[in-house]
Design brief:
Blueprint: H1 14-38, H2 47-65, H3 78-104, E1 108-112, H4 118-139, H5 142-151, H6 153-167, H7 176-200, H8 204-220, E2 235-239, H9 244-247, H10 257-272, H11 278-283
Antiparallel strand pairs: 1-2
Length: about 290
């Protein structure tokens, strides 16, 4: 019976660590919601509060293991900053390329949104940075890293990609064919973000990519972001009545075929980066470099 809980190395198995993290995070979220309720405020978990609770749960888990918090991929310094900014640029370029493909296929045209300047665009990035920190701690932080350590990168990638996609099933617009395309693309995005961590062993690149993707899609280009349509972009897309599998519709570009193709290309590029893959080494399967 003990082998169900303890590995051959004498440590708690990774699956129980991951379960413990999510139970702890749930307890912290419930406690925060009750605290807000007692203070007479709506028990709404904003992105930065969620990020703070995720960081606290991660800190408690690594402290129980006797490891430093920085080992999760937070190493302040110029390299971390440059990786994060590189991720922001990569996310912007990836979603912009998707939008240009859809536009080139006659899916929409843009109109300039009045009253949206640089200041408004920068302000819009604040909550989205909180979302990026929150979701990367949840899906590429402690749980992902412990699964990679204990069960290998294939298990970590596929398990957290599935969980990341399921997390978005309650978002507005998740129905019919849009739900299928959005689930596929969000899962692919999770694998892409997972590769960003595996290639750098830092959360800087995935946080930056996540931020750049969401900010460009909503605040810059005016599309919905994972079904959230309250964004006022610097540009407003005017759709031409083409199928939603091409444009993503109100859900956003994340529910389109071009997004799937470009995410797939980006994943392939990261997999081939430096001619070596953690997935390949862990699985022992011979694949072309």
């Amino acid at each position: 019976m003990e082998r169900w809980f303890i590995s051959d190395q004498g440590t708690l198995r990774c699956g129980w660590k991951v379960l413990g993290f999510y139970l702890l995070l749930t307890a912290l979220v419930v406690a925060a919601a009750l605290g807000l309720y007692r203070l007479g405020r709506p028990p709404n978990m904003g992105p930065w509060l969620g990020a703070g609770l995720g960081a606290l749960a991660s800190l408690l888990c690594v402290r129980l293991e006797g490891r430093p918090f920085s080992g999760l991929g937070f190493r302040p310094g110029w390299r971390w900053l440059f990786e994060c900014l590189g991720g922001v640029l990569g996310g912007i370029l990836l979603i912009l390329a998707t939008a240009l493909v859809v536009r080139g296929l006659g899916g929409f045209h843009w109109e300039r949104t009045p009253g949206m300047g640089v200041r408004q665009l920068l302000i819009a990035g604040g909550p989205l940075l909180g979302v990026a920190f929150n979701e990367e701690l949840f899906a590429r932080g402690y749980p992902f890293q412990r699964l990679v350590e204990g069960a290998g990168p294939w298990v970590g990638q596929l398990a957290l990609a599935a969980l990341f996609a399921l997390m978005h099933w309650r978002n507005p617009g998740m129905h019919g064919a849009t739900k299928a395309w959005a689930t596929l693309n969000i899962g692919l995005a999770a694998i892409l973000l997972g590769f960003c961590y595996l290639r750098t062993r830092s959360l800087a690149l995935p946080i930056g990519l996540h931020l750049g993707w969401n900010w460009a899609q909503g605040s810059l280009l005016g599309f919905g972001v994972s079904g959230t349509t309250g964004f006022k972009g610097a540009w407003t897309p005017v759709f031409h009545g083409r199928p939603e599998w091409l444009t993503g519709g109100a859900f956003g570009l994340e529910a389109s075929l071009p997004c799937a193709l470009l995410c797939g290309a980006a994943i392939l590029g990261l997999w081939r980066w430096r001619g070596s893959s953690p997935l390949r080494r862990a699985s022992g399967v011979s694949m072309p470099a």
